[in-house]
Amino acid sequence: MTFKEIFSQLNIPEKCKKYGVPLWQCPQFLFLIMGIIIIGSILATYFIGTRYIEEPEIVALITFLITIILFTIAFIITRSFERLAEASRMKSEFINIVSHQLRTPLSNLRWTLEVVMSGKIIPPSEKQLEYFKIIKENSDRMRELIKDLLIVARIETAKLTLKKQELFLEELIERIIKELEPFARASNVEIFFEKEKNLPKVFIDPFQIRVAVENLLDNAIRYIKGKGKVLINLKKKEKNIYFEIKDNGVGIPKEEQKYIFQKFFRSRNILRYQTQGSGLGLYIVKAIVEQSGGKIGFYSEENKGSTFWFTLPIK
Amino acid sequence: MKKILFIEDESTLQKSLGDFLEKEGYKMISALDGETGLQLARKKKPDVILLDLVLPRLHGFEVLKQLKTDAATKEIPVIVLTNLEEIDDVDKAIESGANAYLIKAHYSLEEVVEKIKKVLGE
Q1: Contact A163 B87 (CB under 8 A)
Q2: A173 with A145, same domain?
Q3: Which of A106, A133, A156 is the last residue of a domain?
Q4: Same domain, A307 and A170
Q5: What residues in A contact B12, CB-CB < 8 Å?
Q6: Bridge-based pairing state of the strands A240-247 and A305-313
Q7: How far apart are CA A38 and CA A32, in angstroms?
Q8: Residues A77 and A110 in one domain
Q9: Could you list the residue range(s) of the whole structural domain that residue A283 is in?
Q10: Where are the domains of chain B?
Q11: Same domain as A205, residue A303
């Protein structure tokens, strides 16, 4: 823990505001109060005991009373933790239920649309097909959003379990590039992939790392205005595989860079011309990389581009 | 004509997949709850079973367990087709003898049909 992190822990009003509970129910605040009472009561007992009280029974009584007060506060703290845990659990459960409930009608919609679009029942006219495609695109967007919400729910309930296996990361990346190539071409973006020779295997969950790389590559392509290029680099760095993705897109304004991995955060320069997106992608990427034992970071300059990187341990 | 039993409580999905399979040259038998599904599996002897998990009357896992313990049905390949995607559910289904586990939201009808063909060895 760095000094900055310790200091941020001390910013109690902000912490309590984040939890959404009143001050007297906020664990950090109650711990502080308990600490003050402990120190104060030790000092008071010592001074009173040595100067004014001769009977040890009274000192014992004072100590007893203080212990009761401390127990009561400790009890409230435990309760408030329970409330926070409960609130967090309910929130994640809510997302989970809503996401699953939303998926059923969405599956109905998508499969029905597929039957109609396939022309297996009645061949649709060109104009009809044009409209069906719009419905399909939008149902796909909703499906992606639900997928993201479910991942977030898993991250928050610590249910994001990784099924790790040994594999070559470059093979996974090559497949992802191939899949996103049509989207890149349609966006006038070229993808380049450079890699060191004879890279060792990594021990990862291919499905989760796929989500992470897809998100980063999709962002890189999406946030390039006009013609552009995305450069992916893969190399060995000490005991890790180092992945880097560089674009010449819109970049992230300096003052907003600290929020970039926060849930639902979307940069204002992006919002100006790219309204799609949930602001969940990078939050998910960070959680996946960190749970895989890696680190993640970026550097970016507005109007010049961004470079995101992450590391994954070699096994 | 190969017979496919689809145990699924959403009638819209029954209709869309049914129409699609018919055009692909399969016959679809539909069951809207777990119990009916189990009975139809025993009676009609389908070539493959598509099984949803969250089902009325009898949960999909129970249907799967009974299918795989009954000598009359245990050889029929089962493809689980659900929107549950917790790893525990996937593991449980595969351990119980499911041949494949597909998450509806991630699969198109065409991909489901491909999987059916693969399971049938076509």
Answers
A1: yes
A2: no
A3: A156
A4: yes
A5: 108, 111-112
A6: antiparallel
A7: 10
A8: no
A9: 165-313
A10: 3-119
A11: yes
- By three-state DSSP, how is residue A191 classified? strand
Q: Are B50 and B81 within 8 A, CB to CB? A: yes
> Which chain A residues contact residue B110 at CB under 8 A?
114, 118
CA distance B8 to B23: 20
**pLDDT over threshold 80, residue A212:** yes
Q: Rg of the Cα trace of chain B?
A: 13
Q: B85 or A132, which is more confident? A: A132
* A118: chain B residues, CB-CB within 8 Å: 20, 109-110
What pLDDT sits at residue A6? 66
The answer to whether the Cβ–Cβ distance between A111 and B109 falls below 8 Å is: yes
Q: Supply the ipTM of this predicted assembly.
A: 0.86
CA distance A309 to B77: 44
**H/E stretch holding A237:** strand A228-237
A207: nearest CA in chain B? B87
A103-114 burial string, b = 16+ CB within 10 Å, else e?
bbebbbbbbbbb
Across chain A, mean pLDDT equals 84
Q: What is the pTM for the complete model shown?
A: 0.67
Interface of B to A at Cβ within 8 Å reads 10, 12-13, 15-17, 19-20, 23, 83-87, 104-105, 108-110
Fold of B3-119: Rossmann fold (3.40.50)
Cα angle vertex A297, ends A291, A299, to 5°?
Answer: 165
As beta bridge partners, residue A159 has none
